[in-house]
Amino acid sequence: MAFFGRNDIAVDLGTVNTVVRNSLDKVIFCEATCIALEDKYESPRVICMGNQAKKMLGRNPSNIKVINPLLHGAVSDFKTTTIFMNTIIESAKKGSLAPRVGISIPQNLTQVERHSLHEATMLAGAKEVLLIEDPFSASVGAGLDISIPRVRLVIDVGGGLVETSIISLGGLITSSFTKEAGDFIDYALVEYCRYNKNIGISKEMAENIKRQINVFGDNPVINVAVKDLMNGMPFSYELNLNELKDIVLNGIYKIKEVVLESINKAPPQIAPDLIEDGAILTGGMALIDGLKEFLEEELKIKINLSPDPLLDISKGVCMIMQNYEKYSIKWGTRE
Question: Can you give the residue range of the structural domain that contains 25?
Answer without folding.
Answer: 9-33+68-137+312-334
